[in-house]
What does this fold into?
Amino acid sequence: MSGTGTATGTPTGNESNLESAMQLMIQTFHKYSGNEGDKYTLSRGELKEMLTQELGNYLGNPQDKDAVDKVMGDLDANNDGEVDFTEFIILVGALTVACNDFFQEYHNDDKNDKKGK
Ligand SMILES: [Ca+2]
Ligand SMILES: [Ca+2]
It folds into this structure.
């Protein structure tokens, strides 16, 4: 936990919500990426642990091995068998977009006088 520099993941106590969210994403990634193999990438096992612990509500049942393989295949853009931080952030981004779509649909249904984009 030392010698990693000062650029990221060092809370100063006065972050905005978005800055806190970014730090949380970084900290969450490294919480799982450091368990085995390369410290800075998620192996299949680390990915599964992360999905189970952090995204169980969104992804259903990540205990399902096929589901983990599918997420891994979708995320591993450079096909090195590991999920690096850039690949991880794409997952978080895609899930956040999906949540936002759901949120908007929910509110559109609320007042269904107008439909459109
Ligand atoms: Ca790792
Ligand atoms: Ca990769």
The chain has a mean pLDDT of 85. The two ends are 47 Å apart (CA to CA).
